[in-house]
Design a protein that fits this description.
By secondary structure, this protein is an alpha+beta fold. The chain is about 15% helix and about 40% strand. It folds into two domains: about 180 residues, Nucleotide cyclase, GGDEF domain (Alpha-Beta Plaits, 2-Layer Sandwich), CATH 3.30.70; about 280 residues, 7 Propeller (Methylamine Dehydrogenase, Chain H), CATH 2.130.10.10. The protein has six helices and 37 strands. An eight-stranded mixed sheet has the order 2-3-1-4-7-9-8-10, sandwiched between helices. The protein has a four-stranded antiparallel sheet with strand order 12-11-37-36, with no helix packed on it. α2 packs antiparallel against α3. The protein is globular. The two termini are about 25 Å apart.
């Protein structure tokens, strides 16, 4: 197996434009089109010495040692996509973005701002376009094999979550479709007054952050929380009082009356942390890495995506053989999000046609009812007193389902919803596109939303100790006072991707940021 490149590397992000419209057009043919798209892009990347880092749905993340290889792979992929005969005469357009920079490699995963820049550049492209940063462009001037390639300067663009504009170029080459549409970002031209105002705002924000950290921390030094561990946070101070090592790439957490359970996608295990002693035990034997966890009916339930649903017997700490969740017609759902409530398991099941909320009998592990809720993408599920909520990230909304009738009761728009939780008379939703947590009050039928800023990419949320706790991708743990909606944050780790709350503790998972 090839070693992932290190040091200065070039990242390539790709995703299908208007995939929901394409799904509606192709219906049952969508899965075949998606498979063709994957084969064409992977073949182009392999020809030019690239390595696949991650994939989810219709999106890819690749890495190259040489910038020219990344550019050539993108060109070949776009040509192949434009020449392909797609089902029902459809047109599949893919946007692509390249950026070169330094990134940290840990457990086979890349971290750092360079990864985020590449993703943001891809995000402002249109289908058929290849955009690249100035750092990538600067490495291509002397490349003999790129003599037929040209670059159109689009100017400094304002990209989401970056304070300074980034100069971006559009790539043109023979055989590449001419997509002249301007990128989906503003050309930023700052006047001196705007810059001064931004500097003053940053100074004020830094002072506020320092005050918040002092208030939450009570002046006591916090425990350092490394990656691949769980922070044990004092809910009174907001500081980590312990850090418990778990498996590689922890990505989900669930609680029962005596322990915290953590899914480790990198090592394919679940770690049990005793709530009293913090002693750990590791449970293996899963067919595929566990994705999400829920506790109930004396078991810890784990989704294994394509393998289906497995469980850990709490008493014996043994793993059951996964059960495939069969859809009508014989297909198997790809299982992701999971929750327990109303005496049932609730699982987010994906097919090429979209995302369904499945009601599963925990005794037989069979689907007893289902309802289509949106497009298949990363999602979370939460149990409310009178309904089940699921986030629909691609369609930018949260959906409430009646647990008895399986009817959809409400669809509420939220920008890029990820983690969701119920408590304090409200539904709390991480809005990744809004850089905050939305509060939707139950007494107003969830239709009077309030946004509490958290910083970029809140990924998980939990309720407890009179507050709401949001884990932010950059390692901040944000405490939101439910009485006032005021938020304050504490830096817990370099990255966070999960949070849970029990009677004594806030548990925050320090692991790699999930691919978006």
């Amino acid at each position: 197996m090839l070693e992932p490149p290190r040091g200065t590397v070039t990242f390539l992000f790709t995703d299908v434009e208007a995939s929901t419209e394409l799904l509606r057009q192709l219906n049952e043919e969508y899965g075949r089109a998606l498979g063709l798209h994957r084969s064409l892009i992977r073949a182009a990347v392999q020809r030019h010495h690239g390595m696949e880092v991650d994939t989810q749905g219709d999106a890819f993340f690749f890495v190259f040692q040489r910038a020219s290889d990344g550019v050539r792979a993108a060109i070949d992929a776009q040509r192949a996509l434009s020449e392909q005969d797609w089902p029902r005469g459809a047109t599949v357009r893919v946007r692509m973005g390249l950026h070169t920079g330094d990134a940290f490699l840990e457990d086979g995963r890349y971290h750092g701002l360079s990864v985020h820049r590449a993703a943001r550049i891809s995000g402002v492209a249109h289908g058929g376009q290849v955009l690249l940063s100035e750092s990538t462009r600067s490495l291509l001037g002397d490349e003999e094999e790129l003599r037929d390639v040209a670059f159109r300067d689009l100017g400094p663009l304002a990209l989401k979550d970056f304070d300074r504009p980034i100069r971006v170029y559009r790539l043109t080459a023979p055989g590449l479709a001419e997509v002249g549409t301007r990128p989906r970002a503003r050309v930023r031209r700052r006047k001196r007054a705007v810059v001064v105002a931004a500097v003053l705002a940053a100074v004020v924000a830094a002072a506020v952050a320092t005050t918040i950290a002092s208030t939450l921390g009570g002046g006591r030094a916090a425990v350092r929380v490394p990656r691949n561990s769980v922070a044990v946070v004092d809910p009174g101070t907001g500081h980590a009082r312990d850090a418990v090592a778990v498996g590689r790439q922890p990505n989900a957490i669930a609680l029962d009356s005596s322990a915290a359970w953590v899914a480790n996608s990198g090592s394919g295990t679940v770690t049990r942390i005793d709530a009293s002693t913090l002693a750990t035990s590791t449970i293996g034997g899963f067919q595929l890495p566990p994705y999400a966890l829920a506790t109930g009916a004396g078991r810890v339930w784990a989704t294994e995506e394509t393998a289906g649903l497995a469980s850990v017997n709490v008493a014996t700490q043994t793993v059951s053989t996964p059960v495939a969740l069969q859809a009508p017609g014989g297909l198997a759902y790809s299982a992701q999000g999971i929750a327990y409530g109303f005496g049932a398991l609730w699982v987010g099941g994906g097919l090429p046609s979209g995302l369904s909320l499945l009601r599963v009998d925990p005794s037989t592990q069979r689907i007893v009812a289902s309802v289509r809720v949106g497009s298949f993408a990363r999602h979370s599920i939460a149990i409310a007193p009178d309904g089940v909520w699921i986030s629909d990230q691609l369609d930018n909304r949260v959906v409430e389902v009646d647990p008895g009738t399986m009817r959809i009761e409400r669809r509420i728009p939220v920008g890029g919803p990820t983690g969701i939780a119920v408590g304090r008379g409200s539904l709390w939703v991480c809005g990744a596109d809004d850089n905050g947590v939305w509060r939707l009050r139950a007494r107003n039928h969830y239709r009077a939303p309030t946004l509490v800023p958290t910083g970029a990419d809140p990924v998980a949320v939990a309720v407890g100790h009179g507050a709401v706790w949001a884990a932010v991708a950059d390692g901040q743990l944000v405490r939101i006072e439910s009485a006032t909606n005021a938020g304050g944050s504490t830096k817990i780790a370099s990255t966070l991707n999960g949070v849970a709350v029990d009677d004594d503790t806030v548990w925050a998972v320090s692991g790699p940021i999930r691919f978006q």
